[in-house]
Each structure stands twice: as structure tokens, then as C-alpha cells.
Amino acid sequence: MTHINEIGTYCLVLAFCLSLTQAGVVIAGKGRGIARYAEGISLAGAVSIFIAFAVLIFAFIRSDFSVVNVAEHSHTDKPLLYKISGAWGSHEGSMLLWCTILLVYGAMITLRGQGLPEGLRLKALGVQGLLGAAFVGFTLFSSNPLARLAEAPLQGQSLNPALQDPALAFHPPMLYLGYVGMSVVFSFAVAALIEGRLDRAWARWVRPWALLAWSFLTIGITLGAFWAYYELGWGGWWAWDPVENASFMPWLAATALLHSAIVMEKRDSLKAWTVFLGLLAFTFSMMGAFLVRSGLLTSVHSFAVDPQRGILLAAILLLTAGGGFALFALRAPSLAPGGLFAAVSRETTLVLNNLLISAALCSVFLGTLYPILMQALFDKTMSVGAPYYLAVFGPIMIVALLLVPVSTLMSWKRADLKGVVQRLAAAFAVAVLAAAVGSLFYKGPTFLSEAEYLIGLIVGFWLIFGTARTLMQALNFRLNAAVKALRRLSGVPLATWGMIFAHIGLGVFVLGAVVEGHQRLSVMQGMSLGDSVKLGQYELRFQSLYQTPGANYDAQGGVFEVKDGLGRIICQPKPQRRFYPASNQVQSKVALCFTPLDDLYVVMAEPQTGVDGVMSWQVRFFYNPWVRLIFFGPLLMALGGVLSLCDRRLRLGIVRKGRKLAVKT
Amino acid sequence: MLLLILTCLLICAALMALVWAWQRRRGVASGLTQEKALYTGFVADLERRQARGEIDDIQAQEERAQAARALLKASETQAAVAPVKPLYGYVALGVTAILSLAVYLMIGHPDQPDQPYKQRLQTWTRLAQTNPDVLPPLAMAAVLRQGQAGHANDVTYWLFLGRIDMLAGNNYAGAQDYEKARALSPGTFVAWSELGEALTFVGGGTSGPEAVQAFEKALQRDPNDARAHYYLGQQALAEGRYEAARGHYEAALKTMAPDDVSRPQVLEALNSIGQAEAAAKAMNARISGMVSGLEAQLKADPENADGWARLLRSYDVLGDTAAHDRARAAMQAHYANRPEVIADILTKAQTRVGSEGEAK
Fold first, then answer.
1. Are A180 and A105 in contact (CB under 8 A)?
2. A562 C-beta neighbours (distance < 10 Å), count
3. How many Cβ contacts (< 8 angstroms) between chains A and B?
4. Which of B37, B108, B139 sits opposite A659 (nearest CB)?
5. Cytochrome c-type biogenesis protein CcmF C-terminal domain: from which residue to which, for each copy (chain A) (predicted)?
6. Among candidate residues B217, B154, B216, B225, the one with its CA nearest the CA of residue B187
7. Which of A261, A296, B29, B187 has its Cβ near the most Cβ atoms within 10 Å?
8. Does residue B94 sit within a domain?
9. Are the beta carbons of A32 and B85 separated by less than 8 Å?
10. For residue A90, which of A73, A67, A65, A66 has the smallest C-alpha distance?
11. Which chain B residues are Cβ-neighbours of A115 within 8 angstroms?
């Protein structure tokens, strides 16, 4: 008889105790000389919780239904990938994933942070220990993923079929790597406030962590949007759902942080603001966790859990964020304002960028929390949807995005605005021209819609061409010396490449969102075999039905044929209706016709028998132009983040390498 | 349990050893030494960037000054720092180890071994061979399912597995088992009949077209199949075909033994026909009244597309073909110049109420 599950439980307990000790030895202080033990303890804590997480995954793989979590979210028929991803498909399992990442990040501070000043590093580890104790304690005592059942059921209840998808298997780990990555920035911010050490070096140490978390968060959000797009079968990719917003808010805060940290590093300015953003980014991450798990929200993403857990999470949120901001309030007045800069300078544009992103963040925050507050205070049910965000968030972001290329060409301290305008004039003209040509192909329902479309295209092209101009500037590109300039490509620092990829990615995303949002076509119709429906230049014809067994489902699918205006066959989409016997649920599976930019998207609803006895299916047929760019753009942005991380200056632990270099020489 | 506690102690000891080893590796260099090395590296990196032209001279100077200030501050604070005292560290680690064991013993279940499915299946298989009566149907089904490859062409096996699956509440799996039995032996009425029953269970108690077809096939092979008669009777009753329902129930009762446990159920169903008939008549009368009202309304004001769709749908539901055709002709006459409205009305009329616009 083995007791692997119990070993997992013990390791979870041990991780909790180690986190407490990690915080304890730092608090006990240098006076007793034991603060340095926090380093080794952080490593031990990470190993311990990693074992607990591995045990949970093993329990899922082995279908050990004596573990409550496995019994409630797995089934022997489930494919291996979804057995493994089932480990974070529940509230309890996902909390363990959160804690595992949190403690592993703590260990990374020890392993990769040897180049940091000892005091700062140990204090950051102490804060990380407190966060670990709070979250592991919450997981252990209120949401134990390894809780046992005295009588194991004969079979499990399986995982929600909508979650049995490769994108969703990887979406939570990526998202959590981003969310929890912000905890490192939070810990460094608190540590710096305690130490009273906020200088350029601090900004440079913090930026790679923020960049790492931001890159993961970008990938995580994109995977989530892609999953929502092709798994939920509604044709959209973003619904301004409160839980989507909960992941978007830390991303916005982290984006602002990355830019303000640049100013702090270069010019020793914006210290208080940068620290504030560091605290804010993780606060929003924790708020996301709270919103999803408190039962406050009804969403496809939310875990149905009891409000008691929500209260506990709210308490953790208030204590940690409250503690951080209270410390900030105490210390902020003593932070020297730092380097001065002229009104026309890169600093100014980055400050503007920060203000605009923060305003956009506030608009999302209000839109997300307003319905919850109305419900709580006045018992009024309401929802805030896309029109609000397009009206409030959209214009703010347009201004912020228009500033991007300008900012990248500005000089530090004092810039020559006229020179920048001259350098960007051609890029702007090309962007306007491209947008004008693009607008010729769009006839909107209203003038406003057409204006939106044109402005959106201008912004997208402006980001791309304006950033390209920045690259030309970095290469000192001249038409008469183009070859020479291209030779300088390899000399461009990776951080600059990162910035270029991220900004171009943003432009690509904007183009995709604008074109898809305005030019999307859809039709829904009851279709029987042989029926056809027209959508724009395309014709969809229902050819036949087929049945096919899956790993843990039986699928009924339709074979369709899509023809273009010239009668050419474009593709044969085969959407399915999958029946999962284990959970007795049916899931529609979308069929996509792959083209380089656009999607033809077909989804079948359940069959119905007409009064004439003929079976028909409600079929939704979408034409989503340029939708690929919506997912490709953020991937370029994340790639930009990774490239920046590879830059020698920003690589984690680089200062340590610098020291070795110094010793050798 | 002892082994578990020992393992926990071993893990704890290994992790404490990791802490100790890391502490030793780090050495006892003072914080100031480390800070010096750190800022030396920082300045070296600074100079490298300055040499490459990544930063200007003023910024380099500012950063150098900042590094010097940080070093100065470190040298002031480090004087007050005590060297690492291993004893305190050992005490902290010891307390952590004891606390972890105590908490685990409070919330853990050291007496509860793992129960991986494979292992449980082996236990059930042994029980199935020695004492099958104690096995719950779900476990028995899992045991039997292990042998599917060897019994791929064994009708009895699939029929038995189907029954076990049905007993276990796995109606869908049961239907699949019966489907295999039926495919192997299309002439066996039991396979058809039980398939029909399983499909009815899958349909939540309603016999869909596939289930009805299975019962009809069963009756073709054995006209005395009480099960097929009963379910066909139920379906006929649900569809308002009372005479057919009566016929099926009576046929079922005729073939059942007097002490058959299902007899009271069939009798009850037979007795309910009269009641259902009366309720349906009353309902039809009410609907007819409403439909007549609607027809009169449309006669007075024919410009009501939704009304025409409702009227056509109502006649369809009532099964009044003549009235349906009459209403359709009137509607088409009214909208003779607007074929798109006619098409819309006909589509709406053919859509069942409540099935419009399925959620995203």
C-alpha cells in the first residue's frame, strides 16, 4: 500500500511552514544573523510544493478517485493531456498551481538574484515568504487539492468538456506565470520601500522580472482569447467579460510599469510612480484571482465556489495590497523626484503614455466593478458591455497608441519635436494612405462606423510604419547607404529589437481587431441536408452527416462545402457536436477554414425536427477577416518581451556575470 | 503509516539539508564584500555601455555616483549586521520540521492509502471471480469491459455488459453495448428491444425515432415482446395516439405472466389513457378557440406576419391540414406581391416554439 497522496499533502504542509519560516527569519532580522537562511528556505519551499503539485498530477494520471479533486474533475476515459490539465482545471488545483509558481519565483530570486544587493534580496524573499504563507495557507486550509475521500467513488465526474482543449490546457499555466510573476515585482517594491533604496539600479533589476511576467501574461491572455474564439462557438474572441478584464488589468498595469521603469532607469525619475505600478500590477493579479473564485461573478471562466473562500481571498488581498500601499504612503514623500527633463522629451511622452494607460486601466476597472457594486449596494442587476469600453477605453488608447512612434524617436531630457515630426512625416503619410486605401473596401452602416474604421486603420499602420522608422533611425538608414545600414542590423541591441517587435505586434493586433470588428459577417440559419446559405461572396452548402467516435466522446458532424463568388471550392469545414457520456454534456466544435489572414468559421447547434419531420441544425457561419492578426500580433509582442529579456543588460542575474567579468579583468 | 511518517521525515531532512548546503555554499562573506563586488560589476557594465555609446557621459557619471552612494550606505549599515549564527538557523529549521509534522498529523490522513484506478480494477476483477454479488454494477461493468477485445463477436457478452451498464446508470454505454449485440445478431429480438429501452433512457424517458425503430424491429422478430409493446404504448400516449397506446398496453399485458413485476406499471399506464384523452380534448378545445380567434383577427387585419406564422404553426400542431392549407392560401393571397414576407412566415411557422436563436 502506497501513500503518495499523503506525501503530497505533507509536502504542501511543509511548503506552508517553510514559507512562514522564510518570512520569519527575515523579520527576525539581521541582528540574529539568520536572515540569510531565507535563501535556502526559498529553494526548499519550491522543491516541496513542486512535489505536492507533481503528486496531484500523478493522482490525476492514475485516476485516484480517493482524492476529492480527482473524483470531481476526472474520469478514466479522459485523454492523458486532459487528465494532466485537469490538475489545474478546478479551483483547488489551480490554487496549487498558483502557489507552485509563486514559490518557484521565490526560488528564482535566490538563484538568479545573487547579483542584487543582499538587503534588498533578503527583504524581497521575506515578502515573497509572506505571500507564500498566505496563499499556501489558504490553499491548504480552505481549498486543499489533495483532500481525501474515505469512500472513493467507482468513477469520476470528468472535466467540463469546454475545458478539454489544448489551448485551455496551456492557458492557465501561462496566465499564472504572468499573474504570479508580478509578485516578484511587488516583493521588490515593498523591499525597496523598506530599505529606502530606490535608484536606477533597482529599476534595472526589476525590469526583467516585469518583462518576464508581462510576456507570459501576453501569451496567456492570447491563448485564452483564442480558446474563447474557437471553442465557445460564438465567433468572437473578446467579450469584455469581467474575468477577461481581470487578466487585462494587470497586463495594462505591467505595460505602464515597463515603460515607467525605463524612465527610472535612464533618468532616475518617476520613482514613486514606478513603485506604485509595481504594487498595483500584483494587486490586480490578486484581484483577478478573487473575482474568479469569490462567486461574485457568473462567467464561463469563474470557478463555482462558496463565498467563504471569497472572503478569505479578499482578506489576503486587503492585507497584502493594503500593507504594500500603506508602506508606499509612508515612504513615497521621502522619495526624491530625481532627474529633470524638458516638456518636449522622451520622458514626457513616456509619462503621457503612463497616464493614458492608467486612465484606460481605470476605465476597465470601473466597467468591471460597477455592476458588482450596483448588485451589492442596490441589488440592481446590470452589465457593462462592449459599447461602454469602445466609447471610453477606445479613445484613450487611440491617443496612447498614436504617441508610441513619437516617443521612441524622442531624445532623453530634451528633444527636438520638429525634427521628430519631420522624421515621422513620411511614416504617417504612408499610414494614412494605407488606411485610406483600406477604407475604400468598407461600407459601414453609419458614418461613425466608417470613421472608426479609418481611424483604427491609421493607428494600426502608424504603429507599424512608425516603429519601422524607429528601426531605420537605430540603423542610421540612408537610401544611398542602405547596404551599410543593413549590415548594422546585427549591432542593434536585443532590447531595441524587443521594443520593435512589441510595437509592431501591437500594430498588427490593432489592424486585426479593427478589420475583424467592422467587416465580420455572420448568418445563422436552420439547415437540412442539401441546404445552402450565402454570406458575402461565400456560399455554404450542407453536404452530409457523419459520426465518429472520439477518445471520450461520440461526435456527430456535418460536412459542408464553401464556395467563393466564382464557384471555386474554398474548403470543406466539418463542425461537430460532441457528446461526452461521462458528464452527459454536449459540446459544439467549431470548424475553421484556414486562410493566411481570414477565417471562415462554421458551428452547428443541436438538431431539431421540423413539423414536416425533416431534421435541421441551426448553423452559424462567420466570415472573420484578418482575425489571424488578432492572435499573431500579441505573439509578436510576447516575442518582443523575450528578445528584450535576452538582452545582456536585462538578462536575469546579469550583474553577477558582470562581477565575474570584473574579477577576471 | 510508520513508513509514511518516515518518508515525510526523510523529505523534510533532505530539504533541510538543501537549506544547510546552500547556506554553506554561500559562505560567510560579509554583506559589504558582496555589495562591493556587486557595484564593481555594476560599474564595469556601466563602462562597457558607455564605451559602446549606449549611454552618454552624463548618465554614466550619474549612475557611477549613485553606485558610490549605495556603497557608502551599505558600509554604514553593514557595521551593525551580526554574522550568521548557525544555531539560530538550526533552531528555525527544527521548529519548521516539527510544525510541519504536527500540522500534517492534524489535517492529513496517514491511515488512508492511495487508491489508483488500475489497482482497484484488479481488486474488482478478483472479487468478480470469487464473490461477484458484492460488486456494484459500475465496478462489474469496468471488470467486464476489460475483456471486450476477446469477446468482440460474442452477442451474449454485449447483452450482459449492456444490462450491467444500464444497472450502473450508464445508459449511453448500455445503448452502445446493445448496438454491438444487435449488429452481431440482427435477428435477436432482445438486442433490438433492449437497445430501444436504452435509447429511451438516454433520451430522458422519451423514445426518439431510433428507439421506436428498434422496438418495431423487436416486434417484427417477436410480436410478443412486452417491453417493446410497453414503450411503443408510452410513445403513442405521449403523441396523443390513444387507440394505438391502448393496443400496445393490452398486447403487453397479454404476454406477461400474472406475477410479472412489471404488470402493475403497464396496468397503471393503461388506466391513465382515459384521463389523458379527456385532458387532451379539453386542451384542444381551448386551443381551437384561441386559433379561431386568431384567424378572425387576421381576417380583420391581415397585415400581421407573426400572426400568420402562429396560425399556421397552430394548425400544424392541431393536425388540421385542411385549415392549414386554407390559412396558407389566404396568407399567400394577402402577401402576393411580397414573396420575402411569405418565405419568412413559412420559415417561422416551421420553427418550433422556443427553438429560435440558440444561445451563443
1. yes
2. 21
3. 240
4. B37
5. 315-648
6. B217
7. A261
8. yes
9. yes
10. A73
11. 38, 41
**DSSP structural state of residue B37:** H
Average pLDDT for A343-349:
87
Whether A531 has its CB under 8 Å from any CB of chain B: the answer is no
The pLDDT score that the predictor gives to residue B190 is 92
Q: Is B128 on the interface with A (CB under 8 A)?
A: no
Q: Show which of residues 47-76 on chain B sit within 8 Å of chain A, judged by CB atoms.
A: 49, 54-55, 59, 62-63, 66-67, 69-70, 73-74
Taking the CB of residue A447, how many other CB atoms lie within 10 A of it?
Answer: 8
- Closest chain B CA to residue A200: B63
| pLDDT tens by residue, B173-213 | 999 999 999 999 998 899 999 999 999 999 888 898 899 99
Residue B109 near chain A (CB below 8 Å): yes
Is B99 in the A-facing interface, judged by CB distances under 8 Å?
A: yes
Instruction: Clarify whether residues B205 and B269 are in a common domain.
Output: yes
* Nine-digit cell string for A364: 476597465
> Cβ contacts (< 8 Å) between A18 and chain B: which residues?
15, 96, 100
pTM: 0.86
Decide: residue A411, CB within 10 A, 0-12 exposed, 13-18 middle, 19+ buried: middle
- Domain containing B316: what range? 301-350
Conformation bin of residue A295: beta by default, left when phi > 0, alpha when psi is -120 to 50: left
Residue B283: CB atoms within 10 A of its CB come to 11
- By mean pLDDT, which of A35-49, A154-168, A253-267, A371-385 is the weakest? A371-385
Helix/strand/coil for B157: helix
**Total number of domains constituting chain B:** 4
Which of B15, B21, B38 minimises the CB distance to A659?
A: B38
Average pLDDT of A271-292? Answer: 92
- B157 and B210 co-located in one domain: yes
Residue window 574-633, chain A: list those with CB within 8 Å of chain B.
579, 581, 584, 605-606, 608, 610-612, 618
Residue B288 lies in a domain: no
CB contact at 8 A, B44 and B52:
no
- Average pLDDT for A471-482: 78
* CATH number (domain holding residue B220): 1.25.40.10
Per the rule left: phi > 0, alpha: psi between -120 and 50, beta: everything else, B103 is: alpha
Tell me whether residues A199 and B70 touch, CB distance under 8 A.
yes
Residue where a domain stops, chosen among B278, B311, B333: B278
User: Is residue B24 situated within a structural domain?
Assistant: yes
pLDDT, residue A29, reads 73
CA-CA distances (angstroms) from residue A375 to A296, A313, A379, A380, A381? 10, 20, 4, 5, 6
Regarding whether B203 and B64 lie in a shared domain, the answer is: no
Taking 70 as the threshold, does the pLDDT of residue A135 lie above it? yes
Residues B144 and B50 in one domain: no
Are residue B121 and residue B240 in the same domain, yes or no?
A: yes
Interface of B with A in 3-42 (CB under 8 A): 3-4, 7-8, 11-12, 15-16, 18-23, 26, 31, 34-35, 37-38, 40-42
- Say which amino acid occupies A590: V
ipTM of the complex: 0.85
Q: Does A523 touch chain B (CB under 8 A)?
A: no
Question: Are residues B337 and B310 located together in one domain of the fold?
Answer: yes
User: Whose CA is closest to B93, among A38, A100, A27?
Assistant: A38
Cβ neighbours of residue A413 closer than 8 Å, sequence gap 6 or more: A267, A339, A340, A341, A342, A345, A347
Closest CA to B77 of A123, A191, A195: A195
Same domain assignment for residues B258 and B152: yes
Q: CB neighbours of A314 closer than 8 A, spacing ≥ 6?
A: A290, A294
B249 in a structural domain: yes
A119 and chain B in contact, CB less than 8 A: yes
